[in-house]
Amino acid sequence: MSGDWTVKRALEVQIGRDAVMVTIQGWVRTRRVSKNVGFLALNDGSCLDHLQVVCDKDNPSYNLLAEIHTGASVQVHGELQQSMGKGQAVEMLAHSIELVGASDAERYPLQKKGHTLEYLREIAHLRPRTNTFGAVFRLKNLISRAIHHYLQEQDFIWVHTPILTASDCEGAGEMFSVSTTSMKSLHKNPKKLEELAERPYFGSEAYLTVSGQLEAEAVALSHKKSYTFGPTFRAENSNTARHLSEFWMVEPELAFADYHDSMRCGDELFRAVVSHCLAFGRKDIAFLDKIYKNQTLEELEHFLATPTEKISYTEAIEILKQSGRSFEYSVDWGMDLQTEHERYLCETHVKGPVWVYDYPKDIKAFYMYLNEDQKTVRGTDLLVPRIGEICGGSQREDRLDVLEARMQECGVDKAHLDWYLDLRRYGTVPHAGFGVGLERLVMWITGMSNIRDAIFAPRAPRLLDF
Ligand code: 4AD
Ligand code: MG
């Protein structure tokens, strides 16, 4: 049953003198039947456009068209030809049509009319069949492909870091704990609780990782350049349009490098990803741009044409203070930048993405390199319009004594991180890296305004559907 043809490939065929016979499978978006001829619009997710299948009345499959409704899966064998109709260059003249899986048109949750994004979230299993999510998932694929491609070309080693862990990389206490026993069974049998506390499965408390950075550091300190790319989990109680409890993160790490090197690397990575998406996904970006009026095409092109600005946190605070804006959260040196501040800095002040670096140590993680002023650390965030932070990174503290003092100061439990200190004990080097939230990057490139529309099945507080 398998065929190598996709709708995308079929639509790209240059029609010449020789017949191009193909077999195409996909899902029916619409069906129109008149007295003499029937049409199916077929989509298989390979591109935004549908393939128009034409079925003449004298074709034995013509009568089958009555049973083929929106949402049905079909396999069509036929000949590609120059289209007579408007809107497409190529169409297919069917020789035979096979109904693979029927669909009840009345009950099919995707009707022809446009649906709201909120409604589509309730049918996350079917939304990939819409134009919007067809485009989002294709672009997400392109983004991932471009990330791997760029990093591999730059000789980064992809390291598959653990998802189950005993340590809290960010030290923020936002971890999901993992156990072999469900809450339900503990309620039924409270004795189990003692057992669990005394003899945990792994011998100690286990959590879902918040970041693969610490392990990526270990591999950067053997292979010079490493990256992780995988799922990460945050038990933040944030029900916002840019937070998920489970998201994917790419975390490159560079040894013999400082934070300016890692910002340069991040900048090149973003440029490579945006270029790749514009080269291979322009139609999808343009479609989303048109439907949701988010001006992403213009914004991404402007990004490629302009060097990315860098400002220190202290400068950023000054800019916010001078802005004359009344922010919901007041602006004082030492505070964490809120989304409204981040958006002001990139949308209004810079009018494009901006790196902010040298943050107050008290609002950043224990592993960041302490500056001479003893007040700031070499943290680096990239802020982009509409979203705010999409990338967070830093130069890492490579001095054993300073790192130990910072761990103490931040109340980080050293018990599970002695191995991390070893990296400073034996052959330590300056190193730096960053983490990019894949779904935030998807938001930026697709223009989707809610992170729940940038992933197959969003996980958030009180949300675990699909
Ligand atoms: O700034 P974060 O917490 O940094 C780290 O985890 C570092 N260990 C990264 C590193 O230096 N290797 O997270 C990095 C990025 C953020 O900039 C954001 O894009 C994304 O991960 N992120 C989230 N995305 C969706 N939902 C959440 N709850 C997120 N939290 C962070
Ligand atoms: Mg951050």
The first-level CATH class of the largest domain is given as: Alpha Beta
| Domains (count) | 2
Summarize the amount of helix as a percent range: 25-40%
Neighbour order of strands in the largest sheet: 6-10-11-16-15-14-13-12
The Rg value, from CA coordinates, equals 26 Å
In quaternary terms, these chains amount to single chain
Bound molecules: 4-amino-1,4-dioxobutan-2-aminium adenosine-5'-monophosphate, magnesium ion
**What do we call the CATH topology of the largest domain?**
BirA Bifunctional Protein, domain 2
The DSSP helix count reads 13
CATH architecture label name of the largest domain: 2-Layer Sandwich
Shape: globular
Spatial separation of the terminal alpha carbons: 29 Å
Number of strands: 16
The CATH superfamily label of the largest domain reads Bira Bifunctional Protein, Domain 2
Order of H and E elements: HEEEEEHHEEEHHEHEEHHEHHEEEHHEH
Main sheet makeup:
8 strands, mixed
Q: Which regions contain 5 or more consecutive residues with pLDDT less than 50?
A: none
Beta percentage is 15-25%
Class inferred from helices and paired strands: alpha+beta
Kindly report the average pLDDT value.
95
